[in-house]
Amino acid sequence: MERPRTFACGAAVLAVALLGGGVSGQQIGGAVPTFEVEDVPATYERLRESGVDFFTEPTAVGTATIAIFDDTGGNLIQIYETP
Q: Which candidate, 19, 44, 47, places its Cα nearest to that of 34?
C-alpha cells in the first residue's frame, strides 16, 4: 500500500489510498477513504464491538497496519497506522 494522499480543507484533512490486488486473500481495488489512527487493532476491536462489519482484520502491509470495513452502503473505508 502506498502512503495515502492527503488533501487539506481548512482544518480538516482528507486521506485517500489507492488499493490494488488483494489483502488477506480478498480482491479489492480503487480509491478508498482512509483514516489514520494511532492503534489499528484497538480501533478495530472498538468498532467491531459497536457492530461495524470489517472486510479485513488488522493486516500488516509493508510498514503500515491497515483494516478495511464496509460503511453499510457498500463503500469500503480503511483505517491505517504507520510507525
A: 19
